[in-house]
Amino acid sequence: MKKIINNADHVVQESIEGLVSAYERYYTKHPEVNGIIYRNRRKGKVSLVVGGGSGHEPLFGGFVGKGMADAAACGNIFASPDPGTICQTAYAVDEGKGILFVYGNYAGDNLNFDAAEEILAEEGIQTAHVRVWDDCASAPPERTEDRRGIAGDVFVMKIAGAACDAGLTLEEVKTVTEKARNNTRSIGVATSPGSIPGLNKPTFELGENEIEYGMGLHGEPGIKRTVMEPADVLAETLYVNLLKDMPVQSGDEVCVLVNGLGSTTVLELSIIYRKIKELLDRDGVMVHDAELKSLCTCQEMGGFSVSIMKLDAELKLYFDQPCFTPYYAKEGR
Amino acid sequence: MKKIINNADHVVQESIEGLVSAYERYYTKHPEVNGIIYRNRRKGKVSLVVGGGSGHEPLFGGFVGKGMADAAACGNIFASPDPGTICQTAYAVDEGKGILFVYGNYAGDNLNFDAAEEILAEEGIQTAHVRVWDDCASAPPERTEDRRGIAGDVFVMKIAGAACDAGLTLEEVKTVTEKARNNTRSIGVATSPGSIPGLNKPTFELGENEIEYGMGLHGEPGIKRTVMEPADVLAETLYVNLLKDMPVQSGDEVCVLVNGLGSTTVLELSIIYRKIKELLDRDGVMVHDAELKSLCTCQEMGGFSVSIMKLDAELKLYFDQPCFTPYYAKEGR
Prior knowledge:
The structure is a homodimer. Chain A is globular and about 55 Å long. In chain A, strand 10 (about 255-260), helix 7 (about 265-280) and strand 11 (about 285-295) form a beta-alpha-beta unit. In chain A, about 30% of the residues lie in helices and about 25% in strands. Chain A is α/β, with parallel strands linked by helices. Chain A has 2 domains: about 10-180, 3-Layer(aba) Sandwich (Rossmann fold), CATH 3.40.50; about 185-330, Hypothetical Protein Tm841, Chain: A,domain 3 (2-Layer Sandwich). The interface between A and B is large, with 67 and 67 residues.
């Protein structure tokens, strides 16, 4: 397992420097911490700060930009940013209208973002947060708050960014962002492991012909380990599990993301989407928007996840606002 | 090696169906052949048709859209589209102003696109072509016409698309597109093989700690096989080889693409770019635009390529026109 790095200890720092430098038209790096900051922020609005562990690129830094996040606070590989990094990043984009934090629902992130909010509150900065818990394989429906956040993050950030830009108050932005979160479900299947850069070993093991449904982005246990199956079977299995968990019915409109976990090709994601679309058509569910990309990854992990966000008039309004970030761009409609 | 497919014989067909369906806001599929066609084409202009073998997604279909290609003719995995597919795709977007074909310089593509141009000429349709031969590892400078086309395709298509939209004649579009091609060089390094979907075996072999500089997208031999090296050494080696081949000097402006070959992460591409930018800064070369993405891939191949296009006023004018396709979008400036 070869990783294109210099020194395991400098991976995050060097990669953020490179990313910010490549997209310097849009990004600056916080001078002191690993925060990626949007240059052309809209003024006088609630600020959206996202963040989490590194190693899942382009999540989170890749979604800083127009109509999405104002900044991303980046932790070490698969580790939450510390409260200092979160606070410094938030200060840098504060407009006096409050800060909404959006991040994945992991113990370390919850702890550190909560600590940061306490510090900011002491300084008179109003904050709120929405934890993304879209992975319906990671806990049963009665314990959604124990679920992990995976690729559904992208939809939630999209809605939150548009709501901030629309000039909503912090409380209003939080409410619509929670609705986006509550209307989004994801589930994935792992076909091969990722690795921690520099450690030179896989994050988990899977047999030559084995796959695992519901496995987490860091190798957290899934719901079923089985033999490799044809693409249409993989797609249908995920679809059935998603729909069991989600109040989607004939006549509804949804956004779909088929997300590669790292080494899965656009060709493979396309074959999966073909089947998902066939199933949605069969069930009378209309696709408003679909995306086939590797947006929330775990290094070179193989496999993919399917995320579905159910739209209503309000979510659709915000989803349809244009956005432009280096790794996620939508024309308005 | 697990591939997320159904049947090796249907991989290309099913993936095109899925891709077109996901991005149906922009795409339609040709009813008879594997051609991907842009829905919202500008009228009364030269049409840009790109194409080549499948398996390198998002190349070529992913670059059909606003300010880029009007259509892509798609072959089987790593195989040129046949002349019939090319002709049918060209007919579908013909506006009576002529067709420019842009494709990678491979024997099969050259043969089939030439045959298609002959057929179209017989029907009174004016055509021209620009073959992309950016891979400077694949033949010495005195034989640039023997070089292969790799990720530099993206820059050449960007310029060609903008020139078509600007209302230039076929001859003018061809001339500026050739300039873009002549000003673009790429070189890559492979760290692990890709595979042919369904064949279940790697396209080439590399030892556990081996890499190969200059290896082609289909496993064509490179210029040097050696041991794995730190990211900065890989970046500098490619940079030195590029600059040896390319008339770039202090004061010049360039566009840079650090392109992942399949399973290489954005984190790794960012670390590479950090070094490339340091070297360009040292040499006084200014970066006008940079992109860190996996745009021209060979399935789950590991490694990356660096492409540099030297700008002049004319190329910059066209590069700065906005474009929007599912896998490559630029805001205007």
